Amino acid sequence: MKQFMTSSLLFCLVIIAAMYEKGNSQVWNYRNGEPDGPEKWYVKYPHCGGVMQSPIDIVSSQAIYSPALTSLNFSDYLMSKGDNFTLSNRGGRMVQLVYSGTPIYLLGGGLPTAYKLVQLHFHWGANQYLGSEHYMDGKSFPMEVHLVHRQVQLANFSVAQELPYGLAVVGFFFQMSERNNTKYDQLLKYFHNIVKPDTATEVESFQLTDLLPANLDSMDYYRYFGSLTTPPCYESVIWTVSTSYIPISESQINLFRNLQNENLNNFVNGYRPIQDSNHRIVTTTLQDYPSSASLTHIQLHFLLICVFIVALYIY
């Protein structure tokens, strides 16, 4: 009974949040050229015009190897089975899976503290050549998933998103596959319940690692400091972009494309255009790129302090 009440409460909160967003809160879309499109977000949301915006095009040859970037610890992700998930079509702009239950913490990876999982969401395009938010060496991917975490010592997501290093987001690219990724069936089978905007459904729980690459504990990645990729675009995110891909078939990604936006049209191309890196440093766990530069622990610590000072100045 207690689990049922908790699950029902979460479901109601997601619906209320969607209704509030539709009626009161943010007015924006992904359609370039429109008054509320990405090029004009900064008008209503000034942070979207900042100097540390995301996403960016990651240029691998310019990334700096850092020994401080240790392996990320995803072990808590194995404990999600039996907890509560709510899948929603957030205003025809995003598919989001909200988690509640036993806290899931992201550890390691050179992060300054532990980060608690809040939700994960997807960005995709109309074809296999567009859809991801980040680029890799000028290349886009058909879809990208973001795992959003907040600092454990902060009260909630709303507080964390406004503070430097308040959030840690891990991004994974998708690659097209001729075969279905059967592990995604346990999520995709609910998509018929969220076709229309501002709809949500409860999902039978499963291990979140099923949605991610198999080599989580040993994967290589890139790290930089940036922002939320949707308004209000707060520059509070420690970004981790994985080099490990997730396979997905055309028929599976079409389930995302068949969802409806706020105009009841097919929702495609739900991603923010690439932002200027403004000479930000991108570090990596990879050691085999032409760049011979590297960051020691002391240098990385100094860099973090500098970024923190700049962020405080901006705010």
TrEMBL record:
The keyword Lyase applies. It comes from the Eukaryota. The keyword Signal applies. It catalyses: hydrogencarbonate + H(+) = CO2 + H2O. The chain crosses the membrane at residues 295-314. Residues 1-25 form the signal peptide. It is an enzyme of class 4 (lyase). This is Carbonic anhydrase. The lineage of its organism: Eukaryota, Metazoa, Spiralia, Lophotrochozoa, Mollusca.
